[in-house]
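Table S2 (continued). Query chain:
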Amino acid sequence: MAVIAYDIAFRERKNYTRETFNRFEKWLIKYVRDWGDCDDFCTHAFGALLAQYNDLFVKVRKWCDRPEFWVRRAAGVILIYPMAKNVYGEIDPLKITNALMNDEHYLVLKGYGWMLKVYGYREPKKLEKYLFENVQTMPRVSFRYAIEKLDVDTKKSLMKK
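Corresponding output:
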């Protein structure tokens, strides 16, 4: 049923307002319980809302401190939609990465790694610079996701660090 609800919510994206954020955040906290629902909801309906209202990113940053792993994961994966659509002007994905860098849950690490991979489609040089600066501290699972689509030479150079 959740998948149907998320799909209906996404289809209504033209009717979103800033107040929609509060409703979606309540859904995220109350109804989402795993990575699958988190990814479905955040990479579509919730991500589309953030794409429309980049200034709401300040609220997303607070999720990094939540006890629920799926909410922390959501802080990264919600950025995938705006970045994929190239409407993330006021959003700095590296703030989320820095906040979640050494999270205790592997699904959170995978989530922000996936987000970094998508960031690399739009900002490959910024991603490369960030990865070179953080290769020693970034968990391997996040790092591997982040470098997945980089060119072969850059990957090799990063892997030597």
